[in-house]
Design goal:
- The relative contact order is 0.18.
- By secondary structure, the protein is α/β, with parallel strands linked by helices.
- It has helices spanning 8-17, 38-53, 71-80, 112-119, 122-131, 159-162, 173-181, 194-199, 210-215, 241-244, 249-283, 293-300, 302-311, 313-326; strands spanning 25-30, 58-63, 85-89, 136-151, 166-169, 185-188, 205-208, 224-240, 287-289.
- Helices cover 46% and strands 20% of the residues.
Amino acid sequence: MKHLKLTAALLAATCLAGPALAQDATIRVGTVVSGDHPENVGAREFERLVEERSGGAIDVRVFTDSQLGNQREMVEQLRSGDLEITWVTTGFFGSWEPIMGALEIGYLFENREHAFRAFEGPLGDEVAERVERHGVELLGFYEAGMRHMTNSVRAINGPDDIEGLRIRTPRSTYHLRTVELMGANATPMAFNELYTAMEQGVVDGQENPLSNIYNARFSEVNDHLALTGHLHLTHMVLYSEDLWGELPEEHQEIVRQAVLDSAVVQRDKVAEDDATLLGELEEQGMQVTRPDRDALAAAVAPLRDDAVAEFGEDATRWIELIDAARTAN
């Protein structure tokens, strides 16, 4: 994707120039998840690469576990120039650019490889153009992962079992509507409030990738895990536009390439977790079911038409780009 790639020659020149850079800089990275989560595996790799390639001229500090605020607060900190980096899913950014929410229509992406192909193509460039209207610079994409549903009430073997469950979702319109059409009573809530809400019975369950379910210890408050695979979400790695402009060009090049390179490590960690954590969660007592994805996909299919009705030709083009990436070589 042309907007997010550097040439090999430019990277080589940047790395060679690193030790001679005179201006020191501090880059703070804020996340809402635990330190060993795949997102922070990526953050630590980003930290290592930037500090190494800048010869120590750039100091990266990673703040995990919502230390700097929840996702919405940190995006606002980026926009006001009070924080350098955070990431949110494409749909979460719908609060600022509404069409972004349509990227979280259920079953829009078949699997992780399909999502990678889509965002590495023209769709990624159009997304960057949209979000950069709002005081941020889009540097690259991390993988948020494939989401599955858990609850404390009953096993989910089909759509009827989801009916009436109170399921927490992020504050993203089409994400929330996906869960509603699957049959649940969707309840938007910040991630850092979720464990307590399930423990106290405010909600019956939630939906997240396996890494989130495991690292947040949701098996302690939910007995049932359904491998619904209803959403594959992508994180946008965002930098404050105001603070980006304060970096010299050499630093910008180092930071942008480090995001792209650390994304490879971050995605590998997501894949590793998907391969190993299901067994861990079963050992912790979660009962795993595999509902019929086709039946659930049919239930949420009307959201495509809803997006076209709301956003017109732009939504039609985005959906076509995503569908084309489904079968791309």
